[in-house]
Amino acid sequence: MNSVVSALKYWLVDHPTILHFEWTQAQTLGSTPRFLATTVLTYLTLTLLLSRSQLPPLTPKLLKPITAVHSLILLVLSLIMAVGCSLSILRSDWTTVICFPMDTKPSGPLFFWAQVFYLSKLLEFGDTLLIILGGSLRRLSFLHVYHHATVVVMCYLWLKTSQSLFPVALVTNASVHVIMYGYYFLCAVGIRPGWKRVVTDCQIVQFVFSFAVSGRMLYLHFCGSGCSGMWGWCFNAGFNASLLALFANFHAKSYAKRTKIEEGVGHPRDKDKGA
Known about the structure:
Elements: H1 2-14, H2 16-19, H3 33-51, H4 60-90, H5 94-98, H6 109-123, H7 125-133, H8 142-160, H9 166-188, H10 196-223, H11 230-262, H12 268-274
Helix pairs in contact: 1-4, 3-7, 3-8, 4-6, 4-7, 4-9, 6-8, 6-9, 8-11, 9-10, 10-11
């Protein structure tokens, strides 16, 4: 067991590429504002055009293997990021992780995983493409598109501002994505787990937890020497608040409707009529 932990620490924290990582604007991959703006605008434009193009949906025989591979890749990547960032946190001072000193530069293992996390959000654009190719445009909600587009900006600001508290957000979000993409993978291979609701519940808990930990960070910022990346944190907090409201609304509507169906008030077909 010790040898496994030691190997993980080396490959996920102490490897020279990770240990000596430095995020430099205009040099590191994806580090320019132009790249960020182009990526987000391209995503939004293609989503709009493809969703209105009336493409013939892929057959389940073709769509399910593609979905399975996509979900498995993001599941494994999310697990690696969660473990790698967790190990990086353990070798750091907990207070420093919550509140980076004002002169913190974006370098070292924590920022390496922030960079991987940032780039992984581009890979998650494939979620939207699979929805369109599957002909399930009812699932292409404002929440889905807003989340996928804005989270890229949030991750960029983690690096740009050396934002305090991002390691905690990274670990919790990546852990939730392990559950979420695990669910999608199992569905794609023909196994439908009974814990779909757990995915949404975990996402809501994640946002509530982030606000709770933010209280400690704000205390350290205003009662101490200050924390790095506060304006980036303000964007992050506003984004999380909006997602919490949207997820809570989605949760209430989805499961209130399901409860009515189970009680015989509604009928499963009513979902299709109301979509």
